[in-house]
Amino acid sequence: MNNTLSSVAADSDKPLVTAEQIAQFQRDGFLVVENLFSPEQVQQLLQRFDLLYAGEFETGIYPDEWHWNPHLGKAEVAGQMTGVWRCDRTLASMVMSEKAVQIAATLEGWSGTRLLTDGLWQKPHNAKETTLHQDSMYINSHTPVGETTTCWVALSNAFPSASTIEYVPGSHTWPRSGAVPDFHNKDKSYLSQMEAAAQQAGHKDPKVVQMTLSPGSCGSHHGNIWHGAGQNTASVVRRSLVIIHVPAESKFQSGGAYLPGGYIAAKYRRHGDDTMDESFFPIVWREDGYRTPFIDSAEFQPQLSQPQLSQPKQTA
């Protein structure tokens, strides 16, 4: 598959997504978006990358997940952070991109889009595979159930030997599976869980497509599509930004004190209240023009002079 056939030039004055591209997304489960972010935006975020992984959070707020840091992490292990937009204004300005959410809403047929969470990834040389999985395995605590879209943004040149994102076209139509046992692959084939799901869905020979993306371009994909990444055998560090959206009208599913399948999002749910608070899940775009007010406030914009950075806690 030539992924340039399923791409949209986000830097033009033409409609962001055409009817043909919507049809491609519905058929394949993903669409490549070229030049979603400018080289300047990518460079600004890359300048913050090492600081964030070192625990220097501009706002003083820590992320929801923080796997790997240069003080304790092994050199050949992948790094992952989740819920990072509250930690850094430069990153937040990219995560709150109206263009990205309008593309997601158009592809899914939504009237508006809410940010669920984000993520930063880095995979150095020899970092192991990311097991193919469905995002909906981990994102299923909200309604409408299963409706989510992910924007996977390359922050470095992403190509097959450098652990680029891989998709199984059409697999978004398969049933949702349970969470994969080894997200960061250990000793099995990183394709094995997907291949088992394919057999159950009646597909004997599923095709895996490896993307080639330039920095600032992205793969926008359906929450049910099987995807992952191979081992990084190239002599480069692969870096990427993940932005996960849900419909603007989304609410939490009803439940008791604990909400099954909540992963990270459900810890922000108030007991007895199914509302998704805009303080934690802002509405980034809606067709009537509404946008969560604090997103565009002065204090939320990238700062020219950085305040005192938080320091990682040291333990004996």
Observed structural traits:
9-stranded mixed beta sheet, disordered N terminus, 316 residues, Jelly Rolls, alpha+beta, disordered C terminus, 15 strands, 4-stranded antiparallel beta sheet
List the domain count as a whole number.
1
Q: What's the end-to-end separation, in Å? A: 52 Å
The largest sheet is: 9 strands, mixed
Secondary-structure element order, N to C? EHEHEEHHEEEEEHEEEEEE
- Which architecture name does CATH use? Sandwich
Q: List the total number of helices.
A: 5
Uncertain runs are 1-6, 305-316
User: What is the radius of gyration computed over CA atoms, rounded to a whole number of angstroms?
Assistant: 19 Å
Coarse structural class: alpha+beta
Proportion of beta-strand residues: 15-25%
> What is the CATH class?
Mainly Beta
Shape: globular
What is the β-strand count? 15
User: What is the average per-residue confidence, as pLDDT, rounded to a whole number?
Assistant: 89
CATH topology: Jelly Rolls
What's the CATH H-level homologous superfamily?
A: q2cbj1_9rhob like domain
Helix content: 10-25%
